[in-house]
Every structure is written in C-alpha cells, then in structure tokens.
C-alpha cells in the first residue's frame, strides 16, 4: 500500500520550462514532531556481521537497521523501507517508494508476498525465510552491495569505483575527508549542498582519470550518484529553531557515516552508522520528494552538463564520451535539451522502464509480474507530465563502453 501511495505523487517543479532554483519558503520547527527517537526500541545496537547481519553502501539504511527502524538483520520488506525513511528522515513517499521498488526488482525479490531486499550483500533463500520464499526468483538476490551499475555505481561521494578499489560499498577515507572539508560550518543545509559542487565535479573527474571502465548509466549514474552528495544535507542535517532548513554539522556527518577520530586521522568501522542523539528531521510537510531531488540533480547538472550525461570511458582513462541521446532514443529526446522543462524526468524514468525487462531477464520466471511495482512507481512519477513516448532504444549506442558490459553481478 505504501508503494502504491508513493507512486501517486505527480508533478515536476520545472515542468513548464522554469529554471530549477531553490525557492526560499517559511519552514517552521516543531521539536516534538521532528525529534527522531534513538532510545527504547530505537536504541542503537551494533550489527553482528559475522552472524550474517547485512550492511551495505547506503549509510542511511545501515543506520536505520542499527536503530531498529528496519529489521536488524538488514533484510527488509520494501514497504517497511518506505515507512522507515519517511519516519526517520522525512523522505517523501514518492521518492521512497520509487527507490524501494527499484531496489526490490533488481536486487531483491519482487515476487514474494512481502517483496523486499537486503541492504547489504546477497541473502540466501534460507536466511530470508518468509521474505524470499521461492516465488519465481531464479537465483540468490544480490542485495545492494552487489548492485554495481544497476543501483550503486561509480563517482560516489564516499565510496570507490568497483574496478579501481575492488568494491563499491565500503567508505573510502580520502573521499570522506574531501566531503568533510567541503562542508561549510554554521551554514543552512541548502547552502551547504550548493557548496559541494566542486567536490562533486572532482569526484566525477577522478573516475574519468582513474577508471577505464567508468560507466555512468541512467539510474546508478545520473540519479543515484548525485544522491550521495544531496541526501546528507537534505536528510541527515539536524534541524532546530536556528536552522529550520537543517544544518549538517561535522560530528553528525561522522556519526551517520560510521567515522570516528579527528580530521586527518579518521577511522571507519563498516556497518556502525548511527543516528545521533537529540537529532531532529525535516519539518513535517517539507518531505524530500522526487521533484525536490531532481532540482538538486539539475542544480549541479546545469553547471557541468556531463553530470546529466549517460556515458562513460571507452576503454582507457580520460576518454569519457556521452551517449548520443538522439540516437539512443531514436529521436524522441535530445541531449541538448534534457535540462529544459520536464525532459530530464521524462527521459530518465522512461529509460529505466525501457531497459528494465532486459536487465532482469534471468532473475525472474515472470518478468512482467516482477516489474509491476517499478512500473507503477514510474507511472506515478510521470503522470500528468505529458512526456513524449519512448517506444524503443538503440542499445548499440552502449557498445563503445566496456564498463556497460563488465558487471560483477552479471546484470
């Protein structure tokens, strides 16, 4: 039901060609409604990774599992994830439902009576018990830690590239240090995010310069990669009467990313992410939605068009080439106009929908049924926008990118 409700959110703030800008609005602060509990049933508890608890590339989900907002073993129904990110972080139902549906379809079990996925590594049928019950899944779901290029990808804010460091789920201290240094102190969260552009750009350039297999797909690249930069100010900042729009202080930032120690001497303990005590989420009624997130994506993309470009290196470092959007979509979209109107939203979501059947073939016995939650969520995200219809793709446009075909999960 939560997935269905989330898919009903419609509209886009730049759907009439307006340049995306953060508008200043009066935001109040309610210390009772916004306080997030970290006591009682929500008291922090360390994961038992040796016993099979799952923790993965998303620090926000890891923290929710450590605090009991998600099952402590890190294997959760999609509806529970939607509810938890809304309750604890103020993520809207539309964004939460889309991300949960995508993770479930590609990295979990979309055909279970309780569809869901592991927030970390693969979870066997036996471990998942009733969650994955042999309903038509043809192999063990990868979980988010095995989702390279379909959920998690290159140019992450704090994680390394899969084919450079050997994984894409563990925090890399040098990148965390760069993010930490770029965070403006005593500054409202929206301004903190704006100041991260040079850091965002440097991480993109680093992948181009060091990873011959760098690939920037429509979801793991254009959408998920910027989330690592946008989500901490948007949903990890602490709110107060002084900072009703939030302020991500550096101790809070460290806590959410399982980092301790002083600047220049940080220590990282994987899976130990924690919501700080006395922490207050976004104001009720200002939940972080798909339109708000796309504004953040566009804010940086308008300063560097590569950040909106599906593409990658072509087999050597420093060879980044954007895909020919016109050729890929057979004339339906044009790369030069993706930032105009609602074109980006229409392009990305329809591209995901068009590519999904091929990507999950071999994962499910009934592909159409497995894709239904994602299809419903995308239909809700695009409803009323009047998008040009993307009927088919010229997938030969991807052949020049070795990173497109080189994938540890086989997807």
Molecular structure report:
With 411 residues, this protein is mostly helical. It has helices at residues 2-6, 31-34, 59-66, 78-89, 93-107, 125-128, 162-165, 173-182, 189-194, 197-210, 218-236, 250-256, 290-301, 325-328, 343-360, 367-382, 402-405; strands at residues 75-77, 108-109, 116-118, 215-216, 259-260, 267-268, 311-312, 321-322. The protein has a 3-stranded antiparallel beta sheet. It has a 3-stranded antiparallel beta sheet with strand order 4-7-8. α11 crosses α13 (290-301), α11 crosses α15 and α15 (343-360) packs antiparallel against α16. The longest helix is centred in the middle third of the chain and has 19 residues, at 218-236. The chain is globular, with a radius of gyration of 20 Å. The chain starts with a helix and ends in a 6-residue tail after the last helix. Mean pLDDT is 90; it is low at 1-23 and 125-132.
List the helices and strands and how they pair.
Elements: H1 2-6, H2 31-34, H3 59-66, E1 75-77, H4 78-89, H5 93-107, E2 108-109, E3 116-118, H6 125-128, H7 162-165, H8 173-182, H9 189-194, H10 197-210, E4 215-216, H11 218-236, H12 250-256, E5 259-260, E6 267-268, H13 290-301, E7 311-312, E8 321-322, H14 325-328, H15 343-360, H16 367-382, H17 402-405
Antiparallel strand pairs: 1-3, 2-3, 4-7, 5-6, 7-8
Helix pairs in contact: 4-5, 5-16, 11-13, 11-15, 15-16
Q: What structural class is derived from the secondary structure elements?
A: mainly alpha
pLDDT below 50 for ≥5 consecutive residues: which ranges? 1-23, 125-132
Can you count the helices?
Answer: 17
Spatial sequence of strands, sheet with the most strands: 1-3-2
User: Tell me about the biggest sheet?
Assistant: 3 strands, antiparallel
The topology string of helices and strands comes to HHHEHHEEHHHHHEHHEEHEEHHHH
Helix % is 25-40%
Beta-sheet strand percentage? under 5%
Shape: globular
Quaternary organization: single chain
Q: How many angstroms separate the termini? A: 29 Å
DSSP strand tally: 8
**Radius of gyration over alpha carbons?**
20 Å
Q: Roughly what is the average pLDDT, rounded to an integer?
A: 90
């Amino acid at each position: 039901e939560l997935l269905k409700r989330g898919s009903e959110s419609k509209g886009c703030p730049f759907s009439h060609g307006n340049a995306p800008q953060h508008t200043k609005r009066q935001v109040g602060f309610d210390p009772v409604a916004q306080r997030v509990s970290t006591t009682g049933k929500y008291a922090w508890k360390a994961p038992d990774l040796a016993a099979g608890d799952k923790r993965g590339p998303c620090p926000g989900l890891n923290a929710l599992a450590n605090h009991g907002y998600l099952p402590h073993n890190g294997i959760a129904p999609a509806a529970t994830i939607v509810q938890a990110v809304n309750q604890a972080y103020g993520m809207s139902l539309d964004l939460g439902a889309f991300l949960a549906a995508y993770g479930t379809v590609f990295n979990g079990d979309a055909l279970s009576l309780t569809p869901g996925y592991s927030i970390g590594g693969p979870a066997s049928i036996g471990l998942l018990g009733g969650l994955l019950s042999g309903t038509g899944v043809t192999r063990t779901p990868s979980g988010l830690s095995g989702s390279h290029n379909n959920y998690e990808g290159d140019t992450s804010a704090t994680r390394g590239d899969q084919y450079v460091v050997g994984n894409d789920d563990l925090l890399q201290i040098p990148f965390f240090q760069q993010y930490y240094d770029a965070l403006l102190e005593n500054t409202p969260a929206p301004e903190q995010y704006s100041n991260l552009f040079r850091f965002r750009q440097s991480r993109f350039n680093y992948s181009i310069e060091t990873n011959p297999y760098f690939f920037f797909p429509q979801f793991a690249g254009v959408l998920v990669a910027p989330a690592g930069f946008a989500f901490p100010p948007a949903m990890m900042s602490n709110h107060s009467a002084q900072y009703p729009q939030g302020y991500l202080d550096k101790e809070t930032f460290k806590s959410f990313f399982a980092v301790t120690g002083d600047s220049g001497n940080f220590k990282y303990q994987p899976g130990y992410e924690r919501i700080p005590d006395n922490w207050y989420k976004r104001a009720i009624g200002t939940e972080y939605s798909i339109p708000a997130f796309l504004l953040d994506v566009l804010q940086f993309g308008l300063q560097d068009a590569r950040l909106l470009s599906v593409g990658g290196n072509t087999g050597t470092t420093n060879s980044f080439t954007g895909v020919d959007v016109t050729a890929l979509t057979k004339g339906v979209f044009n790369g030069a106009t993706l930032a105009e109107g609602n074109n980006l939203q229409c392009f990305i979501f329809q591209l995901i929908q068009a590519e999904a059947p091929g990507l999950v073939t071999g994962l499910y016995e009934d592909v159409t049924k497995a894709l239904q939650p994602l299809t419903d969520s995308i239909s809700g995200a695009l409803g009323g926008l009047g998008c040009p219809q993307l009927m088919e793709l010229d997938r030969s446009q991807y052949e020049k990118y070795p990173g497109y075909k080189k994938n540890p999960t086989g997807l």
